[in-house]
């Protein structure tokens, strides 16, 4: 399992890939940071929470995570190296987990860069640390779930580019699940509304960014990740059966 | 010992491999021979544990590939048809990854990588990106990967494809040397290659085994029989009955419709070929069947191969042959034969 994890990380860090991703992420983050500062009114203190910022950061993820995960399985298939992994003594489940952990590591690397903003803020103002930590936990959970989703999409696809495009569309669509639940049409059916609402990740993230850690939200993200990874595993196994 | 029993693979309703069984003994090179699309790669993939089988078992040194995949796969080195290399990795980096994947103990990895690089003569490209290597080098890097960890059983799917003649000779020599410590199954559609290095061959076509034997035995069994080729213009059934009634004819193995009332027959003979030929010629003239071409032929190894792969699994009677219009697969098999001659 470890060799695969290491190889995945190498493919991110020995190429400009991870750095370009992190740089792009930082650029977008700093843009919203400076916009956030510009909006602070004179009467306010410098102690602004990062809630809103993290909220807007979510949008950037939609564009970055599919690019991060697109190669996970589609590339193996394209290179014909899937055979190598599948005929090694490493089980499919371990392959999936190793790749998930590698993606998470790159994601943490991207997130780590953003810590610089609260540090700068704390030099001239005040940062509500507890809330910040909550926001980071929330954004980590959200990202991990999207990585699992991106991997699933990659396991369906033959080429990385298609995996990325499909990933963008689906993840973008998922942002609006709660909006969908709140449309007048769906509201007519409260039961349907509550079912759809249960799948919305956005409101759960909102709790985190406001400084609440709720067990139900943690369970939501954890179970979503497990379901998506198991689904990925099944997809890969199924493809072996159907290969023509 | 590796035992393959009743191995079957369906793709939907399409049967790619049909209940094949054979064994690979210790320190043996088994040739796996068949035209393109015969089911060779599918079988190899199933033996290696990449493709699940629809039916049957593969046992590798006592471990069933589906029940104990981890244990079975540890004894396997597999070189698929397309070498499974990462274009963005350097050769040494790639081999080091594969060594880890195959659970080569950490302390031995370095020596092991050096050993396989030396064996396949890829030491000079160890620092190069695989992307930039020629096809021959990529193939050898893939081969090196299969040898890592010194697995007892090697599955090599067309290892010499895309190599230049010099490299082909080198790779063949390596495979021959491997026999001392390994069991090898080695697929090819080139007969001369298989006959040069294999102890036994399994000949497969359209998912069925056509023969399992040593090269010598295969040749011997066909050397005594002669083949007569006859091309006529006229009635197919009349010609067939002439041939059938001639003394010394064993059987008609194929009838091809070449259009414009021209048919070519392949006939197996026993006894004095010249006398049989003359007798058939006389009878044809008497019955107003005009002969375009007639000659007798001694089967060489190439003919044996073509004969074996084209031979129907169940021997069809004469009527069946007469009714049968030449289908695509026969044309394919002929193309295949020609290709092989060219390659040689």
UniProtKB/TrEMBL annotation, chain A:
Any idea where the ABC-2 type transporter transmembrane domain is?
A: 49-228
Tell where it localizes: Cell membrane
InterPro entries tied to this protein? ABC-2_transporter_component, ABC2_TM
Q: Which GO terms describe its cellular component?
A: plasma membrane
The keyword Transmembrane is assigned to this record? yes
Per UniProt, the keywords (alphabetical) are: Cell membrane, Membrane, Transmembrane, Transmembrane helix
For membrane topology, the record states: Multi-pass membrane protein
PANTHER family (alphabetical): MEMBRANE COMPONENT OF ABC TRANSPORTER YHHJ-RELATED, MULTIDRUG ABC TRANSPORTER PERMEASE YBHS-RELATED
**Listed name of the protein:** ABC transporter permease
What is the originating organism of this protein? Ruminococcus flavefaciens 007c
């Amino acid at each position: 399992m470890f060799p695969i994890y290491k190889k995945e990380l190498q493919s991110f860090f020995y190429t400009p890939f991870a750095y370009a991703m992190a740089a792009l992420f930082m650029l977008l983050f700093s843009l919203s940071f400076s916009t956030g500062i510009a909006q602070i009114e004179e009467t306010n203190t410098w102690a602004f929470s990062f809630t809103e910022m993290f909220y807007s950061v979510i949008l950037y993820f939609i564009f970055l995570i599919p690019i991060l995960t697109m190669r996970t399985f589609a590339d193996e298939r394209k290179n014909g190296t899937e055979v190598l992994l599948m005929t090694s003594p490493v089980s499919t489940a371990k392959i999936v987990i190793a790749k998930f952990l590698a993606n998470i590591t790159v994601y943490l690397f991207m997130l780590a860069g953003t810590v610089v903003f609260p540090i700068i803020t704390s030099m001239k103002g005040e940062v509500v640390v507890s809330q910040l930590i909550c926001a980071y936990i929330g954004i980590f959970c959200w990202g991990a779930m999207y990585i699992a989703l991106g991997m699933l999409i990659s396991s369906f696809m033959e080429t990385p580019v298609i995996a990325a495009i499909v990933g963008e569309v689906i993840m973008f669509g998922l942002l609006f699940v709660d909006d969908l639940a709140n449309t007048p049409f769906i509201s007519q059916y409260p039961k349907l509304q509550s079912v759809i609402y249960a799948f919305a990740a956005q409101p759960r993230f909102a709790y985190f960014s406001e400084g609440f850690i709720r067990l139900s939200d943690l369970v939501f993200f954890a179970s979503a990740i497990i379901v998506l990874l198991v689904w990925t595993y099944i997809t890969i196994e199924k493809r072996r059966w159907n290969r023509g | 010992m590796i035992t393959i029993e009743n191995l079957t693979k369906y793709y939907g309703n399409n049967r790619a491999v049909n209940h094949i069984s054979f064994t690979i003994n210790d320190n043996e090179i088994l040739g796996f021979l068949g035209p393109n699309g015969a089911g060779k790669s599918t079988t190899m993939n199933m033996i290696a544990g990449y493709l699940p089988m629809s039916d049957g078992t593969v046992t590798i040194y006592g471990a069933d590939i589906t029940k104990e995949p981890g244990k079975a796969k540890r004894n396997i080195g597999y070189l698929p048809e397309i070498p499974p290399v990462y274009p963005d990795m350097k050769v040494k980096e790639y081999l080091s990854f594969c060594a880890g994947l195959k659970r080569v103990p950490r302390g031995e990895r370095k020596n092991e990588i050096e050993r396989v690089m030396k064996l396949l003569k890829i030491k000079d490209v160890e620092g190069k990106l695989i992307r930039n290597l020629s096809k021959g080098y990529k193939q050898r890097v893939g081969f090196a990967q299969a040898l890592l960890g010194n697995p007892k059983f090697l599955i090599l799917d067309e290892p010499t494809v895309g190599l230049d003649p010099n490299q082909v000779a080198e790779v063949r020599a390596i495979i021959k040397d491997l026999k001392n410590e390994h069991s090898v199954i080695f697929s090819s559609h080139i007969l001369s290659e298989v006959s040069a290095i294999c102890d036994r061959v399994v000949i497969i076509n359209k998912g069925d085994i056509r023969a399992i034997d040593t090269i010598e035995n295969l040749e011997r069994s066909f050397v005594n029989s002669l083949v007569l080729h006859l091309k006529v213009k006229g009635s197919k059934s009349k010609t067939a009955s002439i041939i059938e009634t001639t003394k010394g004819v064993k059987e008609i193995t194929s009838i091809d419709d070449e259009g414009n009332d021209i048919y070519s027959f392949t006939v197996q003979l026993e006894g004095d070929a010249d006398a049989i030929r003359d007798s058939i010629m006389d009878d044809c003239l008497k019955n107003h069947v005009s002969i375009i071409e007639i000659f007798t032929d001694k089967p060489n190894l190439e003919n044996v191969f073509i004969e074996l792969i084209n031979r129907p699994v169940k021997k069809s009677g004469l009527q069946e042959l007469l009714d049968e219009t030449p289908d695509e697969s026969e044309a394919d098999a002929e193309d295949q034969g020609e290709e092989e001659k060219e390659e040689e």
